Amino acid sequence: MTTGKLRLRPDLLGVLGGMGPLATADFLAKLIALTPASVDVDHIPVVVSSEPQIPVRVLGMANDDPASPLPAMLERRDMLVDAGARAIAMPCNTAHYWYAEMTDGLELPFLHIVEAVIKELEAGHTGKTVGLMGTKATIEGRLYEDPIRERGFDCLVPDAELTESHLVKGIALVKEHRLVEAKALLREAVERLLDGGAEKVVLGCTELPVGLDMSDPWVAEHCIDPTAALAKACVDWAMGVRQGATP
Question: Could you tell me the domains of the chain?
Answer without folding.
Answer: 13-112+229-244 (3.40.50.1860), 114-225 (3.40.50.1860)
